Protein 1
Amino acid sequence: MGDLDVEHGSQMEIIRKTKDEEGVPSPGSFLGSDSRDDDGRIRRTGTVWTATAHIITAVIGSGVLSLAWSIAQLGWIVGPVILISFSFVTYYTSWLLSDCYRSPNPVTGKRNYTYMDAVKANLGGMKIFFCGLTQYMNLLGATIGYTITSSISMVAIRRSNCFHQKGHNVPCHISNNPYMISFGVIQIFLSQIPNFDRLWWLSIVAAIMSFSYSTIGIGLGIGKIFGGNLHGMVEGVNNITQAKKVWQAFQALGNIAFAYSYSMILIEIQDTIRSPPPENKTMKKSTLIGIFTTTMFYMASGCIGYAAFGNNAPGNLLTGFGYYNPYWLIDFANLCIVIHLIGAYQVCFSYSHAIHFYLY
């Protein structure tokens, strides 16, 4: 037994030294160190404001440009009420999810670094597989949406220039297929860059692009209203059949729900926050500020867009050609969408690898 104990101790010493040499801290190597957190990782430095910035960047996407059409389907009363209702639902579910970052105790428990870590710690069993599969489908749908939306924006740039040169009555039909293929080729190239999704400037670029095209859309709507165009009805679109009205109302609800979605990265955002105070407390404050700011932005975009176009509001303010001029500004806004979605696709691609680990 003594020889076995010595052999076992030697093996553990080798493992410990190997980990230290590889830069992985052994248990106890970080105790008492101010540069490490309780899990041995480099001390996190995130605050309420950095987490809020991440939330706003994640939530405000190209879906904001479809909100005017969504408000048009629901009308002046139901539309804003639904927007506010979804903000409360998003805040409440995010409030609950923030308590899952540590398990079993939300303050002192073991950290869960990803959404699937939280599922594993709190549910376990086959629920890991089914939640992972659902998350995979969610990410798949998001990446397909990014590809289609990016190609539409690239085509919109070509069509905008065509309209400017040949007039608004020219069809200017352009196929989306070459642009979808180009987007895919770009993603294949970027996916070869190690940790591309973790580059520090990626979130900054995404935030700038997101606010740029959203602000341009709102600004053009305000300009159209000041030009003497003020539209909208209490009941929304009313010159269609009842069946189509119901169908489009559900589409509008889907657009609004998609515009608020960021649950798949909430845990990852929370993993950047320093402690003390407890991470869940900070995250709840950030969620409140972020959702409130986003809701105000969405209300402005949706309501101003509906007021400018009324029941004829396009499905996308920048690609549906609700605006033709200034064409260079429309081109710039669509370019911002493309750049934003190129980065967003890479972030989704990285999450799919994390989920793959749990599914297989």
Note: Strands lie at 102-103, 110-111.
Protein 2
Amino acid sequence: KKVWMLLAVLFGALVALCLFLVCYVNSDTLVLLRAFVQRDVHDEQHDKFVAFQCRYLLAYLLAVAADWMQGPYVYALYGSYGFSHAEIAIFFIAGFGSSLVMGPIVGSIADKYGRKKSAVAYCVLYSINCLLKYSTNFKVLVFGRLFSGTATSLLFSVFESWMVFEHRKNGFPEEALSHTFALATLGNGFVAIIAGVAASLLADSWGLGLGYYAPFACATAILAVDAVIIATTWTENYGSGVSTGGVNLVGTLQAAVVDFVSDRRVALLAVLQSLFESCMYTFVFMWTPALLGSNNECSGSISLGVVFAAYMVCIMIGSQIFSYVREAFKDLHVEKVAVFNVMVASAAMAGATIALNYRESCSQNQLLLLCSFMLFEMCCGVYFPLMGTLKAKYLPEKTRATLMNIFRCGLNVDLVIILTQSRLRGVRHRSMFVRWGS
């Protein structure tokens, strides 16, 4: 009962803070930056920017909605088919391994043959993955995870690459990019909560007897709609600005490697992304067993759905904090914001490690653990628009999508190692993962 009350108070406070920040940070306008008003841009340019943001955000948020729709039930679906924890870990290893191998390749394809086509390809590949999950055959499910890993590489590269190119092609100011990234992160949080609730309803009662597969069927429908929207509302763009379909993809990959090696700032961005997102995904894997205890002894006293919703609100708060900092401190370099954000995230995970190591039951140090996790999620909310701004600043346009997938190679290697250890040792080593993330 005390845990429930604690969660209710924390969640209410977080929602109130999020609403305040959304209203305060966006008090002048919900879509347009103050920079436009200050520069006296004509209404036609205002409308053009609004239309551009709406086109991008609609397609992007539908894409992540399909991802969020199925996310909470991947493990549960595999478990309902009778697979063990070790076998389920193999599915996830296959997905991240596929992303590791295919990421740079699909990034090169996107840069050379078009980001719009690649965004539609994401919808197709992810739909195939969802459809294959209806099978209970182990090999078929592993095959589906290969499609999932490839599609994930596209999701986290081609949408952003398309937006940055179109933003600059239309002559919008550079500072407006941070605002679009922040809106995307804010919308991502809202979509995650709505998709999570919808997936729960579909799996529990509204799924027409499909059970845990119902959210995946719904995700397939969302992806079909998204593919149509992208195909009919987006214009095509390429890494070099024009189609170069006849060029060898190896050349694009080599050019990206040269950009990576020759520019120290690009290499440092890759290190930042790999380390931070490795920590983030470690947290995704381990927060549930950390809260519930090694034997799930706290499963009846804590609502994972409420905790997940609180995490999403924290991400939205983080995105608005980033927007506020960018607006209020215009002379503050975004690189300094990145350093401070990483320091706070590290302190949050250190606090979680202390809470886990100095308790004899799951009810001990619960407040410290929850607050540490929520602070880390706020840092994630700052990180996404922050990293988008840094990549828009430093990555060359001609190899942007390729480099963004190369950035994810270190992350995928870390995740394969983490999952392999989880498969061999089990979740009892969760505190080790939290220390690694810290």
Note: The first helix runs from residue 2 to 25.
Protein 3
Amino acid sequence: MYKDGTVCDDDFNDYAANLICQEMGFGGAKSWSSGVSGYSSLQSGFPTRLDDVSCSSSDRSFEDCDYNEEDEDCSHSEDVFLSCSRDESADMDLSESDFYMIDSNGRRFNESGKEGLLMFRDGTVCDDDFNDNAADLVCQAMGFRSAESWTSGYLNSTNDRFNIFLDDLNCNSTVTSVEQCSYMIADHNCGHSEDVIIACSNNAKEVYQLWNDGRSWAVGVQVQESEISLPRMTGWLCDDGLTDYTALRLCNEILGTRFGKRAPSGALLEGLPFRTTNYTCHYGDKCRGVAYDEAEFACNNDTERAAVYCYNATEEYEINMQSAEITNPGGKIVLKMRVKYLKEGEVHHLHGDSAKDKISVEYCGRPIKLKGVYGRDGRYKVTGKIRGRPCSQECIRVHIGGVVYHEENCS
């Protein structure tokens, strides 16, 4: 009600609903509609007192809006029904059905692979906090399998016909529905150059899997044609762009191990080609790759298949000294060694280099002062200086964490 009459829905929108609720002391609008419903006899007893209520995203109070206090062309079938919320966040509930796409002519469409302006109710979506996971979840809300691509900017002049109505849509990697994301409705700090433009897809879903190649895990790519079909192996991941963090995510999400890192690349297996390249994961976001045959630059050598090391805490593993070469030039000790960490039933190699800080060397029963331990990934060079008088047998023992793992010239 406005003064002693009803409000007409001409030009009324979500911004107006939000600001009017705030004017009445609420946090914001929960929903609004128009009509007569079951209140027709009540409505007919009042005149229409407010018409053409027009509020935009830049308006901060109802006083900033445009409106007409004289009814010119309304009937009670256009009366506004408003539900307000006491939630001080002033956010209205977001629903999956609120999203749709329009083309450059402003027409709605629902076509796989076609790029369009992402809409939320009667406005656009700002790209603040928007990410790949948000794109996938929005496309799924509109009935697609996933997002094919997204960007932000202008779709011809279509954007200017609408207000920006959704901002700060933040979907981290743990949420499975856009309704679980955080967001702001009818409040933003964006321009139309930040409007989300998106293309959705119903193409087969790629599923990444790890195969034990004997010393590490090979990263393979499977394709799942439908939600009920089993994935089938189609090829391998090219090592371009693979980072330790991406390896960690693959290990954690597929094998459940706590740690992971990039491993030396290997040769193609099973007669299958490269399928994906530049597979990258970002903190708090979904991992993404590029189709191998669409990449401008990609692996051109069959030995560039991506591989990762997956492991849990180093302390759970046994240390294995694979080799040690000791020289004793002029009162110095130079030790070159290779170490692996072993655990039954798991690919095991390069577990955080924890042994590096536990190496000590004993010469003739006396510890020598180490000048440095260099190297990484289980390959270390240790240098030290012998103190005291030489002994006749020159027994040398190598300790890791107080345990003797190698000895020379010791009876």
Note: The CA atoms of residues 152 and 248 lie 30 Å apart.
